[in-house]
Structure formats: C-alpha cells, structure tokens
Amino acid sequence: MVRGVSRGGRGMPGRGGMGRPPFRPRVLMLRPPFDLILAEPAFPRCKPAPDDTALTQALLKRHSELCPTPSEQAAVLALVTKLQTVLDNLVVAPGDFAACQLEEVRQVGSYKKGTMMAGKNVADIVVIMKTLPTKEAVEGLSNKVNEEVNKLTRAEGTGTVTSTCNERGFTVTAPQAAVRVLVTTLHQNLRKLEPEVHLDYKIISSHLAAIRHSRWFEENAHHSSIKVLIRLLRDMCSRHAGLEPLTPWMIDLLAHHCIMNNPARQALPINVAFRRALSLVAGGLFLPGCAGLPDPCEGAHARAHTALDLAAQDHAAATAQTLLRVVARGGHRYVLGLQPFEGGKDISTEITVWDGVVVSPLAPAYQETPEPMDTDDKDDDSVQDVVAA
According to the model, what pLDDT value does residue 383 have? Predict the structure, then answer.
C-alpha cells in the first residue's frame, strides 16, 4: 500500500473519504501598513527631498508653547518631593499607622517620563500595598498623607494642601500643583479582590501596568526627540475629536516607533517623524487586521490598539487621513494649533479648500449593525397555532 493513501477513498489523501479535503485551520495574518521609511531602500528617490523647513520650525515653535514653565515644574517637584518623603517614611517606619501596609512607592506618568504639558501641573505616584486595598484603607492613607504633608508645608510656610479620595486612590492638591496617588496591591493579591469591598480589579491592574510602562519608557525612550513628538501628538489628539480615544501609552509607543524604528537605527528628524506618525495612523496602523504596535509590557501577541473599539479605530484612521491631506497642502499651522480655524471649529470635521484642492472629511466606514432578533420561539408558536387550528 502506498504511503499517504487514505482508508476512506481510493487514492484520495486525508481521512475524510472521497473528495473531502484535509482540514486546515485558518491562520489570521496581521499585516503592517505601508511605511515609506522602512520601504525606502526599495523606493529610491528620483529627486532631492523637498524643503520642509517651515514644518520643522512650526513643530519646534508649538513644542515650546507646550512645555511647562520653570515655575510650573518647580511647583510640581516641590509637592512630589514632600509626598514621596511621607510615603517612603510610611513604607520604612509606619509607626502607629495601621490602616494598611505599604510595599513600594513608584513615580509614573508624564511627570516621570518628562513629557508633562504646560498648564497640566499634575504628577502621578503609584502606591503598592501589601494588604488588600479596601476603600477604608485608602481613606485612612489619604488622611495620614494629608496630615503629614501639611506638617511639612506649614514648616516651610508654603500653604496647606487638601486630599480627596476617588475610585483610583486619592489626589493631593496644592495651590499650584496636584499629585494623583494611584493605589494598587501585590500581584498575588489580585485574585483575592472583592468588588464590594476593594477597589476595582481593572483599575488596580492598570496601575501595575503604569509601573511597567514607566520602566520601559525610562530604558528605551529617553531620546529627546521622542518626548518632543509625544507632546505634539498629545496636543493634536486633544484638539481633534477623532484622535481623542488614543491613550497616552499608545501615543508613547507611536512616537518611539516613528523616531527610532528605521533602517539606520538613528533618530529621525522631528518633521519626518511627525509626517510618519500621521501616515501610519491614516494607513490603518490601528485598524482591525493590522499588525499595529506590539505592547512590550504585555504578552507576546498583545497589541496596543486593541484598547479601542471598532468605531474608535475607524474614526482615528479617517481623522488622520484628513489631517494628513491638510498638512500635505500646507495647512500644518492649523493642524498643530498655531493658528485657529474659523470659529474655533475642528479642522478634521470641516470641508476646507487649500490652493484650489478641496479636502473633505471621510464618512465612517464602520457601521454598527444591530443583532438579529431571535424569532425561533415566535415561529414555533405560530406553527403550534396552525396545528391546533
């Protein structure tokens, strides 16, 4: 008998019998969008690159407006230093404080990464508890921190601070700055959480992820151009509705990818990276079926854009396509916010004309279809009625 001939049919491969092909599982192939920077060796230039000085100067000017002033940085630093001192003392020598036990205190967020924006004097600190994070424990920690920080401020004559609890922990507010204290617990305690007693599981897990994000950023994204691009992208996302769902972590990964991921492994100029970021999002980087950006702090197959729903992914791609066409026609000052659009409207949602070229917003490609109603019971009832008749 010839090897490979099945028992179910004459000369037919497989075990399914005559004519049935062998079972092959479908494999989902994630494809990256077209990236001219990575494909440049295959598409050599026929003429020199155009002069992009105007865009470069506009980007640097906008970034200087987005950077916090020295007084803002000093106010945040002073409050963070006081709060860090108080929390470290509670970790090492809690004394008579018995509301909870602290394991570690870590700075996270834009203040830690060096990407803080002007007018947003808010820093983030994650507190890891050894004990379970009950709501009473968070309130007790908030009161203790408020008491100790006020002692330090009164000694310096810098005014008083207030502490208010929320679903993520509590916020310590000073006259010119604020610090959000994000409460979490040890990883082995996550399975012991109860929704009615402790903080929300997803919130606590996101605080642990924030520590991983800050550690990765400190090790891999320390180049100054990455921080410049992050500020520009965050500002652009805050002014255009279609890009608002992009999370800070997605923007961090996008900026790092656009600056450092190139054949030369050298930091790209800020104007090239900015155009690349818009081109990638417009080309479908955050759409279903695209490889997207792998999350270096999660599993091997985790993608950063899966945090967005399908409608948000579609809206982000359509908005980026509109903004990219505006930038290509010389409207970068409106996109960057250096020059307000007519009536303060969102330029990504209005029909505009640039040197005779009409740029109109794209219609959404994703349409949410309602789930079909289950009519089996109604059909059965009608059949029974007919039989009974």
Answer: 38
Instruction: Name the nearest CA neighbour of 138 among 182, 172, 107.
Output: 182
Contacts 24+ apart (CB under 8 A), 74-79: 75/121, 75/174, 75/176, 75/177, 76/111, 76/116, 76/121, 76/122, 76/123, 76/177, 76/179, 78/158, 78/174, 78/177, 79/123, 79/161, 79/172, 79/174, 79/177, 79/178, 79/179
- Does 123 score more than 60 pLDDT? yes
Q: Give bridge partners of residue 164 from the DSSP assignment.
A: 171
pLDDT tens per residue, range 277-336: 999 999 999 998 888 898 999 877 788 888 899 999 999 999 999 999 999 998 999 999
166 φ/ψ sector (left φ>0, alpha ψ -120 to 50, else beta): beta
Helix (H) or strand (E) holding 282, with range, is helix 270-282
Does the pTM surpass 0.70? The reply is yes
CA 388 to chain centre: 61
Buried b (16+ CB within 10 A) or exposed e, 318-350: bbbbbbbbbbeeebbbbbbbeeebeeeeebbee
DSSP state of 124: E
CA 262 to chain centre: 22
pLDDT per residue as tens digits for the range 133-153: 999 999 999 999 999 999 999
pLDDT for residue 163 is more than 90: yes
Report in angstroms the alpha-carbon separations of 209 from 111, 113, 151, 166, 215: 16, 15, 32, 19, 10
